[in-house]
Structure formats: structure tokens, C-alpha cells
Description:
Chain A is an alpha+beta fold. Chain A has helices at residues 2-21, 125-146, and strands at residues 33-41, 44-46, 49-53, 57-64, 69-73, 78-82, 88-93, 98-103, 116-122. Chain A has two helices and nine strands, in the order αβββββββββα. Chain B is elongated. At the A-B interface, loops of A face α8 of B. One copper (II) ion is lined by residues 40, 69, 104, 106, 108, 112, 115 of chain A. Residues 40, 69, 104, 106, 108, 112, 115 of chain A line the site of one copper (II) ion (CU).
Amino acid sequence: xxxxxxxxxxxxxxxxxxxxxxxxxxxxxxxxxxxxxxxxxxxxxxxxxxxxxxxxxxxxxxxxxxxxxxxxxxxxxxxxxxxxxxxxxxxxxxxxxxxxxxxxxxxxxxxxxxxxxxxxxxxxxxxxxxxxxxxxxxxxxxxxxxx
Amino acid sequence: xxxxxxxxxxxxxxxxxxxxxxxxxxxxxxxxxxxxxxxxxxxxxxxxxxxxxxxxxxxxxxxxxxxxxxxxxxxxxxxxxxxxxxxxxxxxxxxxxxxxxxxxxxxxxxxxxxxxxxxxxxxxxxxxxxxxxxxxxxxxxxxxxxxxxxxxxxxxxxxxxxxxxxxxxxxxxxxxxxxxxxxxxxxxxxxxxxxxxxxxxxxxxxxxxxxxxxxxxxxxxxxxxxxxxxxxxxxxxxxxxxxxxxxxxxxxxxxxxxxxxxxxxxxxxxxxxxxxxxxxxxxxxxxxxxxxxxxxxxxxxxxxxxxxxxxxxxxxxxxxxxxxxxxxxxxxxxxxxx
Lengths: 147, 338
Ligand SMILES: [Cu+2]
Ligand SMILES: [Cu+2]
């Protein structure tokens, strides 16, 4: 009996601790306010890749530094257009997980079709932890019931 | 000369003259028949700007324009006129119709930033006809005041530690003599000069130096209506912020390109756009000087000449807006009827 309690703690308690405490690759698990400044010039975005966590409140500040550029986020179907000298903001909640293409939505010259970037909306670790914990608890329950 | 040869030369000359004549009439800017569409192509100014860039019409003649861009987004507007700016997009044609009722030379220009030389993207419309009214174009104020736009103009008084506040100034309960409260006074004096004059007023003798600055802010506020500030802000965002910065610090997105541009290669010329948050320079500047610079431009420094484009009221609205960078955004007086 003793051993099986310890065994059970080892079997379910340890993974539960791991699930709870393991560091998340994207930093904090709480949805956060994020302001991301993107410079657009000569057919490129700087940065071209933005990674956020699911549920984050995002504000993209689009700064055009040569001609008028736009920014369209596929999947979210959001657009913003900025003239040089007039920073424009796009605010949204990153509620959809996945990798989405960012494209320039304003014809800005010959290489305009190649003006692309990426929005990576990472896993919602809070949600997955909760799911994992619930599963572990369910398994522990089943095992306990059987014995 | 035998007749056969003469005939041959004649036929040849005729064949040549016909197409040449057609071309010449186009190039010479001979006024087009009313109703004909003029197609204007926009390209970044480094690639040629507007084509054509000279148009001639008669006074009152309806001008039909078909506008398109060969590269990026441009815009089209006509300076000193009430023609509403339109966008000019690649692969699209924007049609516009305009009738200019006063003879003279108008400047049309690009309204969407298309590179560091965006403001050089200009063309002219010559409107021919009898002048019905005498020429009312006055010389700008800086000329009649004899202001040298090139001279450095640092304030000869230490700027205040905190931005002056017209609100605090009004609460001091110190009356400001009427002669300070006219547009003519404001336009011809710098905040620094005004500070010295107010400092010397008997009514101000127990005020601290900072409090006298608050009175200066009050004088400036009495010359800034909220509607002028709003118009100035709109003009500043679309025409000036790309160089002077959205917060006026001289650090706009084009500043880097200007530093590498032609003006930077001129001897002892600093190519950076003026910093309107610099208290020493701004508090030593008169509104007339700022307006003069806006109208005439820098003549090679990279500061455009806005005279052919902005109306007198628009340039004063811009000047009123520039003072925000010293006196704060709330420094306005009541919006009296304009
Ligand atoms: Cu673009
Ligand atoms: Cu343009």
C-alpha cells in the first residue's frame, strides 16, 4: 500500500508538477499587452517575423520610411496603411493560433509582391497546461478507482 | 530647277511637316480644346516626376484630368486652389475635373510621400487670361520686416525649466497690456523678446522669471485658435512630419536619407531638419521667420518651399502648430469667429 501511494504520487504528481512549472518557450503564460513597431521600407518589414502568444493583445505600429506601405494579416483579415511621417496602429487580440502571412497591401513598386512577413501566434500554454492537468487528474482517478 | 524635283521636295516637306506640326502643337502647350482629357503620369521624382509637368489652359476652361501612377502610390493636388486632393494609384486611373478661375501660374504637387524627394514632385498649370483684379499677392511678412532667414536665432534668455503654461499665466492675475495681444505684435516678436518686454512691465515686477514665461505662453495662446491648431496639425502630419518628426524633434523617417543626400554635400550646411523641441532656437524665432522659412524654403538645405502650395492662412496655422512643441498642446485661446 505504501509503495503504491508513493508510486502513484511519482506517476501522476511529478508529471503534474512538470506540467505546472515547466518554462514556456514564449515566456509568460498570461496574455500580455504587446506593442510591436514594424518599419516598412524597400519591400521589407523590419522585423519580418513577429512571434506572440495566443491571447495576447497586440498593437502593431506601422512606420513607413520611404513610400506608402500597407500591412495585411492573412487569417485575421486585418489591414493598415501608413504614409511616411504618419505612424498607424493596428490593435487586435491574437486569438487564433498558427502562422499567418503578412503582406503589403499597397502597391509600393516592382518588388511589392515580395514584401511579406510572418505572424506566429504560439500555443496558449495556460490552456494546454490546464488540459494536461485535467487529463492527469482523470487518469489518477481511474487508476485509484481500479485499485 | 526642274519641276519634277520641286514637286518631289514639296511632297517630302509636306509629309514631314504634318507629323511635326502635330507634335509641336502638343509640346508647345497650345491650349487644348475644352473637353479633351489630359493624361498625367506620376513617377517618383528621381524617375521623372509628373509627365507632362506643364499644362496650359485658359481661364475658366474646364480641365479634365486622367491621373495614373507608373510606380507607387502618389496623390495629386493643386496649390493655392480649393481642388480636393485625390489619390493616384498604380494600375488605376483617377479622373478629376477642375476649373481655375484666376489667371496665373499654379503648382500641382504630389500629396502622398514617395521618397525623400517626394516634395520635388511638382508641375505647373499656366492659366491664361485677362486679370480682372489687381495682383493681390503680397510680399511675405519676413521680407517687410527685413528678417534674414539664414541668420542663427538663439534666444538671448535662458529658457524655462518646464514648458510655459498659459493656464498658469492666466491664474497669475497680472493684466497683459493690449499692445502685446495683437496678431501684428505676435508675428513680429520672438517669445524671448516678449519675455524681456514683459519682464520690464511694472505689473510683473514681483513675478519670478518662470512666471513671466507663463505670461509669454498666454500671449502666444491668444494667437492660437483650436481650429487653426487642428488645421496646422493636419498639414504638419501630411507634409512635415516625415522630415521634422511626428513629435517635432527633427528625427523624422526621412532624416537619415537627408543626411546622405545632396544637401549634406554642401559645405557647412547641416542637413538635419530643424528640431522644434529645441527651446533655445524656437524661443529666439519670430512667427514671421518661421512662416518665411515655410514659404521660401531652405534654398538647397532640403527644406521645401511651400509658398506656391499653401495659402497664407495655412502657413500661419502651421506656425501656430509648431509652437505646441514649446508651449504644450493645450496652449490655445478661445475659438473666435474666423
Ligand atoms: Cu510595400
Ligand atoms: Cu509622389
